[in-house]
Amino acid sequence: MKQSLAFQQFMAAVAADDDEQTETLVAQLTPTDEPTLLPLLSAAHADQRWWATRALAFCGTQAAVPSLVAALDDQDAALRATAALALGHLYLREPDAVRPVLDQVATKLADEEGVVRQTIADALAMCGDAAVPALAHVLQGNHEGARTRAAYALRKIATMKAASILYRHLNDTNYLVQMYAYEGLDEMGLLENILVTL
């Protein structure tokens, strides 16, 4: 498989542990580099896996979706978080490719690491209304960390579709879910309308 000069320089910067240079080189990669990036997601070296995931956030296509979803189960929490953000960025370019896996991504809101839960919530928020059904499903579950992040993501989405779910959780037994529901509706100017009609 032919490697572009940009990819060769990118790999050299990864090997040199030069994060600043590697980040600069990420911006020079294109979708034509994707076939050489994808195998790195299963590399033994954690830095290679992380940087390949970061690069796919920038230049990946629908072909990267299955590998990025699989990376959500990586043993490295930082890589799981980066894979989630990569899927969020990929949604902005290839929504039809990412939409079918949003339910699967939302289940990862139960990750054992708080930073991963937060990043997955941010990634799902990037998907807007497409993620609302998956987030609503999480709110019906029993994992309180996942439920809290789901409510946070809905607050961040801030659409009428998200608001319709938040409204149902104004009196949630989880104080943080209740708080995100209240703040989300208030920020959208909907809380006053709700109170007036009660």
Total number of strands: 0
| Termini separation | 65 Å
Q: Determine the CATH topology of the domain at 102-197.
A: Leucine-rich Repeat Variant
CATH class term of the domain at 102-197: Mainly Alpha
SSE map:
Blueprint: H1 5-15, H2 19-26, H3 34-37, H4 46-59, H5 65-71, H6 77-93, H7 95-98, H8 102-107, H9 114-126, H10 132-139, H11 144-157, H12 160-167, H13 175-187, H14 191-197
Helix pairs in contact: 1-2, 4-6, 5-6, 6-9, 9-11, 10-11, 11-12, 11-13, 12-13
How would you describe this protein?
By secondary structure, this protein is mainly α. It has a domain at 102-197: Leucine-rich Repeat Variant, CATH 1.25.10.10. The protein is built from 14 helices and no strands. The protein has helices spanning 5-15, 19-26, 34-37, 46-59, 65-71, 77-93, 95-98, 102-107, 114-126, 132-139, 144-157, 160-167, 175-187, 191-197. The longest helix has 17 residues, at 77-93. The chain starts with a helix and ends with a helix. The mean pLDDT is 93.
